[in-house]
Design goal:
Elements: E1 6-15, H1 19-31, E2 37-50, E3 53-66
Antiparallel strand pairs: 1-3, 2-3
């Protein structure tokens, strides 16, 4: 079994559509520059209200990725 060491960063994703879309947007964007993303944890969920309706969702994530050997 391999030992793994992870680095954890915090991201905030937003979406006018849904909480799930805010998560997917944050992970997709991070995946463009980070290799080996392995997991995420939702830390906080917020939203913005405009004229009595949800304007957008905002989700704070802890994201873990594997550090390379060497």
């Amino acid at each position: 079994m391999n030992d793994h060491v992870y680095k954890v960063i915090e991201l905030v994703g937003s979406s006018a559509t849904s909480i799930e879309d805010a998560i997917e947007t944050a992970i997709a964007r991070a995946s463009a520059t980070l290799d080996e993303i392995r997991w995420f944890e939702v830390k906080e969920t917020r939203g913005h209200v405009e004229n009595g309706k949800i304007g957008h969702y905002q989700v704070t994530l802890a994201v873990g990725f594997t550090l390379r050997d060497g």
